[in-house]
Amino acid sequence: MRDEVLTAAARKNLFLAPEALEIIDSNGYSMDFVNTLLNSLSNNAFLVTKQDVLDFLNGDKGLFTSEKVIKPRIKRDLDLKIVPGSDITGQSTCVGTIEDFTNYFRSRYNILKKILTNRKDFGFASTIEAARRHNRDVKIVGMVYDKKITQKNGHTILEIEDETGTCSVFISKDSPLANEIFVNDEVIGVAGKFAEKSKLFIANEIFRPDVPKNHTWVPSDSTSSIAFLSDIHIGSKEFLTASWEKMIAWLRHNAAEQEINYLVLPGDVVDGIGAYPDQEKDLEILDIYKQYEALSEYLKEIPDHMKVVLHPGNHDACRLAEPQPALNEMYTKTFDSSIYMTGNPINLEVEGRFVTSYHGKSIDDWIAGVRGMTYEDPIRVMKEMVVRRHMAPMYGARNALAPEKKDYLALEHLPDIFVSGHVHGAGGMDYKGVKMINASTWQSQTDYQKQHNFNPNPGVMPVVHLGTGKMTMMEFAKD
Ligand SMILES: [Fe+2]
Ligand SMILES: [Fe+2]
C-alpha cells in the first residue's frame, strides 16, 4: 500500500510527509481516496503534509466527506430532459468528404474560441493574419496541429491554425510555459507577438477554455440523487452477478426512501461480440441479441420510480465512431419503453443540473499520447478534458471520430456533473464545482485485461446528490 501511495504521489511530482503517509496507511484508505486527495491539491503543491490530509478529511473537496444538508423549500417533481441538440441519434449527416471534415473542425474551433474569448482575462482575439500585419502584443486563438521540440536547444514550437492562416508559436525552454501539456487538435489562446523579421509568434501566456474562475457548485433545494452504473458487460463470463444482485436489492430497499430517482448507464452495457481478439473465450452469451435480452431482464429489476438513461459504448452493437447514435431498436425490443435510449455522448438536464455522460473511449488516446496520464487515474484525464472543454480532441488516433456538422464531443455547455466509464475505474473529484466521476464496471478482470496488466475496480455505484453535490461511492463487490 505504502509503495502504491508513494508511486501515485511521485506521478504527480508530489512528496508525502511521513506523518501524512502514516495516516493514509494506518487507516487503510483506498487508492481512490488517495487519488482524490492528490487531485484536490493545488497545482503548485509539492509536499503533502499531515495537515493537508486532515484538511481533506474535514473539508468538502472529496467523496469521503459529508457536506452540509440544504433544507428543501420546494418539493420538485421528477424532472429529466435530454438537452436538445446533444443527441446525434437520427441527426448524422457525415459521409467523410473533405467538406465534412472542414465543417467539423470549424465547428470545434468556433465553439472553443467562443468559450475562450468569453473568459474575462482573455477578451478580444486577433486573427493570425492581422497579428502578423500589426506586429504588436496580441492574443490569438488557434487549433494545435503539430508540436515539435527543437533538437538543438529544446525549445517548443507549436503549429497552430485559425480561419485566416497558420503560424509557428515559439515557447522557450526557459519559459514557465515549457511544461504545459499540448494535445493535437485542441484549441488554445496564445498571448504574445510576432518576432521582428521572423515567422515565429513568441508566446508569453497560454489560455485554455477551462472553467470560469471562481465557478463553484451552487447548492439547490433539490433532494434527489442520480446514480451511475457503467460498463455492465452483460454476456461476459466475468459479469459479477452476485454484486449486481446485491446492488439491485439495495436499490429496491433504499432508492425510493433516499430519493435516488435517476440512473444513467454510460455504455458498454453488454460485452458485445468481437470487441477484441479471441473475445468468444470470455463470453457466457455468444449471441449479441441474447446479450441485450439478458440485460433487459436485469434492468426490469430496477425500481419503477427511477428514470433510466442508457447510451452505448465501444462494446455495444453500434458504430464505433463518436458521436455514437442510440442502440438500434432491433436490439432493444425487449426493453421497458420507459428507458431513455440516447446517443453517446449525451447531455441531460436533471432537476436543473446539467449532466454530461460520455462513455470515454478517448481516454485510451489521452493515456497513450499525454505524459503523466494513466489507467489508474482516469479522473486526471477527465480534468484535462474539462480544462480543454473537449472530450476527444485528438483526431486520427485510436478513437474514431465521425466528422459531423457539429462537434458533439466539445463541452460547449459546462456540466455540473461529468461522468465517464470505459476504463473500469471508480473515482470522483470536484474540479472547480464540476463533479467528475468514473463510474466503475460490473465485470471482474478478464484474461485479456490480465495479460494487459489492467486492474479494474468493479461493483461500485457512484451517487451524486443533486442539491448538495455530495458524491458517494457505494461498493457492492466486497463483502
Ligand atoms: Fe468497458
Ligand atoms: Fe469501453
What's a concise summary of this model?
The protein has 479 residues and is of the alpha/beta class.
The kinds of small molecule bound in this structure are: fe (ii) ion
Main sheet properties: 6 strands, mixed
Low-confidence parts: 60-75
Q: Terminal Cα separation, in Å? A: 20 Å
Describe the protein.
- 44% of the residues are buried.
- The strands form 4 sheets. The protein has a 6-stranded mixed beta sheet. The chain has a 6-stranded mixed beta sheet with strand order 12-11-10-9-18-19, covered by helices on one side. It has a 5-stranded mixed barrel with strand order 4-5-6-8-7.
- Helix 1 (2-11) runs parallel beside helix 3 and helix 2 (18-27) packs across helix 4 (50-58).
- The chain is an alpha/beta fold and 479 residues long.
- The longest helix has 20 residues, at 98-117.
- Strand 10, helix 8 (288-299) and strand 11 form a beta-alpha-beta unit.
- It is globular.
- It folds into 3 domains: 2-58, no CATH class; 80-92 and 214-475, Purple Acid Phosphatase, chain A, domain 2 (4-Layer Sandwich); 120-207, OB fold (Dihydrolipoamide Acetyltransferase, E2P).
- The chain has 12 helices and 19 strands.
- The two termini are 20 Å apart.
- Helices cover 25% and strands 22% of the residues.
- One fe (ii) ion is lined by residues 268, 313-315, 359, 361, 422.
- One fe (ii) ion (FE2) is lined by residues 268, 313-315, 359, 361, 422.
